[in-house]
Amino acid sequence: MFSYKKIIVWLFLGTSLLEVCALFLVQKSPFGDVFFANVGSIVTMSGTVLPNPENTLLKQLRAKETQLTMQEEQLLKREHATLQIFLYGFVAWSVLLGLICINFYLDYRHRKEQRMA
Questions:
Q1: Sign of CA dihedral 74, 80, 84, 90
Q2: Model pTM?
Q3: pLDDT per residue over 68-107, tens digit each?
Q4: What is the domain count for the chain?
């Protein structure tokens, strides 16, 4: 008589043999390459780790990096505004200096004309 253990062993061996034969047939078939190429995309695994100071460090570093980037942009805007103000001031002083030089030249020419007359 057959015992339950022997039946289970024979069923296990039979199904394993059928699986091996099926895989061999699929591998040798024209669509076997496609099947085995997609096996990796079918099998997935996921896991989670509870948050702790070590694994939240990257999130903290990214937040700090974002904050520093924003501060750098603000400083660059201020620097650009300061440079723009300096440029406008330089242009204004240059125009005033030019006007003063023209005034001295015109005064010199006017006095020279008065002496000759």
A1: positive
A2: 0.41
A3: 999 999 999 999 988 899 999 999 999 999 999 999 999 9
A4: 2
